UniProtKB/TrEMBL annotation, chain A:
InterPro entries: ABC_transporter_permease, MetI-like, MetI-like_sf. Gene3D superfamilies: MetI-like. This is Carbohydrate ABC transporter permease. Residues 1-33 are annotated as: Disordered. Belongs to the binding-protein-dependent transport system permease family. It comes from the Bacteria.
Automatic annotation (TrEMBL), chain B:
Residues 1-23 form the signal peptide. InterPro entries: Bact_solute-bd_prot1, SBP. Pfam families: SBP_bac_1. This is ABC transporter substrate-binding protein.
Length: 318, 459
């Protein structure tokens, strides 16, 4: 995954590799004398740790997903049957669809809010900025389980949200936020928005702080208003940060587990099921470990593909 | 830096091959996984003489974490160690959810406990039996005379056929300490206020719900956010309409019953009508279980259908004012029918180093003396319940209801025991039924599909 790489210097090659200084002959000839593997030697310790703690479990998960296994007795090889089941099971399709809805709430919405918030906070010279920045970032620091427990209280039938609505005379708007077949998914998604917005805002503020003031001056001289400046200068300048923010929040949206587990357990009915909750349920509650592994592998692949896509698009436009 | 595509592909290939090479060997072929499917009885004679066994350590996993539960476990373990100085007990305790998640892994690993609590549902005990991870207790039941002390209706909850296909009969695989019964909690003062008596027939009860609603009170309170609480409301309703044997077959997930019978549809229609008529609290599908019974103790609602496990907490909050009755029978004076059964039973794993010692321990913690200690610590003994009945108060009501149901009526299995997926299927379907998303017929069809598929797969 690419970090928030600063825009390459002008005149660099399109691949993003800055042209290096011409190498001296000696360096080149030394490289030809078998030193080509030296860099890999340096990579080895890190790679071993990576292999043991990440690649091995991943490989094992892929392998288990090819078996019908209850986690107790000897497994039987079923090839891709678990994957066929993943594709054809309507309940699972729903779970993946819910995860996509969550992407809107975890990524798209916070990005919109974050861009505006960050622009205001960066451009406006407000006192107590550090304090405000901390407040905005705070939800990101709290463990998701704690956040979920708190919101479960807020959304309760006589919880803080409904109480507040009644207090201002909006009784007609009170709902069973976590027990309503149409509203619960957006309600849970909004918790994600609340959590993600802080991270996105802080990331974008870091990017906006680097935009040279001259650009804004020039734009103002050219007669651009605040909205025009925002769209033509601020947003394009933080493209790298947007890519990072989207990558992080999309991953968070797709692997949401604790939030659903604590607030709704997938209910009401099956209206808030998500893939990672299905993985847990199949592996630990139903004893369908092979099927659980297949869902996990598909979910991992999906997360990987979406993020490759986001990064590709982000790079192409730079 | 962007590596060249070719190099990326080579690296990716290398990584994939390395990962697959690292992970080779069939899942479940590890040490713990290799037990033959036929559950073998311990070979040779059963020894019941613990003192003669030499220095021993017994590893026990339990989920008795709450106040009175933890206390009885500590006291019984101390008593056991005091009686047999050659044995030390290594107790590992964790919440039920944690035990559920870790037990499966532990049983197939190298460090399985000797004795463990395992839920007798098909998703746990049933699978452990068919995988040969826990052993049959039949030889011990004979040696210790358990069949004489425990009634048939208690033992069937932990009985499976050796292949795990049939539930409710066959060999014994676990032994419980406590009994559970689902019934109706009520506030005495509230009933007086409304001019009502404790209902003696099912018709009375239903009629009262309407009366209470007209009086502007909430007849029934339910916190169904987590989907399982509605099962405990549906159980008694089903008990009023459906033949107990039919419910048993459905609850144990055995062949020969159906969810789509006229009677089951009637039960589903009844509970849906209750929701439709507004007999439940506002927003019950999004309300937290604990928050709802707590608000009940503070005066919200008239009736709370719930299990005996809530009794200690509810009594602490309401004192003298709270009462409990088993769901009233259809015919006045007939035996009462409700959901209930046993606390989580103790089983012996197939990796137990000394099954004889493990069995002696299980006998000890379910003995007559143990039942007295259970009652003292606020738990309801699964047998000899009437002997330990408290003088008065809520616990007396509950002991009485449990004894009455087990002796004169029918204690029906928890419906989620039926199949590994039934807890979710039924929870989701009931949520939809009570919300009006699906009707009784759709509800019955959904649940029937789960049940029928499981039964078919077992044949």
């Amino acid at each position: 995954m690419r970090g928030g790489v600063a825009s390459p210097a002008p005149g660099s090659s399109p691949t993003g590799i800055a042209p290096s200084a011409p190498r001296s002959r000696t360096a080149r000839s030394r490289r030809r004398r078998g030193g080509g593997w030296a860099p890999y030697g340096f990579l080895l310790p890190g790679f071993v740790v990576y292999a043991v703690f990440l690649l091995y479990p991943l490989g094992r998960a892929v392998q288990i997903s090819l078996y019908d296994w209850d986690g107790l007795s000897l497994a039987t090889f079923v090839g891709l049957a678990n994957y066929a089941d993943v594709v054809t099971d309507p309940a699972l399709r729903d779970a993946f669809a819910h995860a996509l809805v969550l992407i809107f709430f975890f990524s798209v919405l916070p990005l919109g809010i974050g861009l505006v918030l960050a622009a205001l906070l960066t451009r406006a010279r407000v006192r107590g900025m550090a304090f405000f920045r901390t407040v905005v970032f705070l939800p990101q620091v709290i463990a998701m389980v704690v956040v979920a427990v708190a919101w479960r209280q807020i959304y309760a039938p006589d919880g803080q949200l409904n109480t507040a609505l009644r207090a201002v005379g909006l009784d007609a708007l009170t709902r069973t936020w976590l027990g309503d077949y149409t509203l619960t998914l957006p309600a849970v998604g909004f918790i994600g928005t609340w959590v993600s917005t802080g991270l996105v805002t802080v990331l974008l503020m870091a990017g906006m702080a680097r935009i040279p003031g001259e650009l804004y001056e020039a734009a103002t001289l050219d007669g651009a208003g605040p909205v025009r400046t925002f769209l033509s200068i601020t947003v394009p300048s933080v493209r790298a940060e947007v890519v990072v923010a989207l990558t992080l929040t999309i991953i968070a949206a797709l692997k949401t587990f604790d939030l659903i587990y604590v607030t709704t357990s997938g209910g009401p009915g099956t209206s808030t099921t998500v893939p990672s909750y299905e993985v847990y349920r199949r592996a630990f509650e139903l004893g369908e470990v092979g099927s659980a592994a297949a869902v996990a592998v598909v979910l991992t692949a999906l997360i990987f593909l979406i993020n490759v896509g986001v990064n590709r698009i982000g790079e192409r436009e730079r | 830096m962007n590596p060249s595509p070719r190099r990326t592909r080579i690296a990716a290939g290398t990584i994939a091959i390395a990962a697959l090479a690292l992970a080779a060997c069939t899942p479940g072929s590890g040490d713990g996984g290799e037990t033959d499917d036929a559950t073998s009885a311990p070979s040779g004679e059963v020894s019941t003489d613990v003192a003669a066994m030499g220095e021993q350590t017994l590893v026990v996993w339990d989920q008795e974490v709450r106040g009175g539960q933890a206390e009885q476990m500590e006291r019984l373990n101390e008593a056991f160690e005091a009686e047999y100085e050659n044995v030390s007990i290594d107790r590992v305790t964790q919440s039920n959810d944690d035990l559920t998640a870790t037990l499966r892994l532990a049983l197939t690993g190298d460090d399985a406990p000797d004795v463990t609590q395992a839920n007798n549902s098909r998703s746990q005990m049933g699978q452990f039996v068919s995988a040969g991870q826990i052993i049959s207790l039949d030889p011990y039941a004979e040696a210790y005379g358990w069949a004489d002390r425990f009634s048939e209706s208690v033992l069937q909850n932990t009985s499976y056929s050796a292949d795990g296909v049939t539930f409710g009969e066959g060999e014994l695989f676990g032994l419980p300490q406590v009994g559970e019964v689902v019934g109706v909690y009520y506030s005495k003062a509230k009933l007086d206020e409304l001019g009502l008596e404790v209902p003696q027939t099912w018709a009375d009860f239903e009629e009262q719900l309407g009366t209470i609603a007209e009086a502007g009170e909430t007849p029934l309170v339910l916190g169904n956010l987590d989907q399982w609480p509605a099962l405990h409301v549906f159980g008694p309703v089903q008990g009023a309409f459906v033949d107990p044997e039919e419910v048993r077959a459905l609850g144990f997930g055995n062949a020969g019953a159906s969810w789509t019978t006229e009677e089951n549809l009637e039960a589903a229609t009844t509970i849906a009508d209750w929701a439709e008529a507004g007999y439940f609290n506002e927003g019950f599908n999004g309300a937290d279980y604990d928050a709802v019974w707590q608000s009940f103790t503070e005066g919200t609602g008239v009736y709370l259908i719930g299990g005996s496990w809530l009794a200690a907490d509810i009594e602490a909050a309401m004192g003298e004012d709270v009462g409990f009755f088993a769901p009233p029978p259809v015919e006045e004076g007939a035996g009462r029918v409700t959901t209930g059964g046993i606390g989580i039973p103790f089983a012996i794993t197939s990796q137990a180093e000394n099954p004889d010692l493990a069995a002696a321990y299980i006998d000890f913690i379910t003995s007559e003396e143990a039942m007295a200690i259970l009652a003292e610590t606020g738990n309801m003994p699964v047998v000899e319940t009437a002997d330990h009945m408290p003088e008065a108060g809520l616990q007396a009501d509950i002991y009485g209801a449990y004894a009455d149901v087990t002796e004169n009526g029918a204690l029906l299995p928890y419906l989620d025991w039926a199949t590994p997926t039934m807890g979710d299927t039924l929870g989701q379907a009931l949520q939809g039924l009570l919300d009006g998303q699906i009707d009784a017929q759709q509800f019955a069809d959904t649940v029937e599909t789960d049940y029928a598929e499981f039964v078919a797969a077992n044949e």
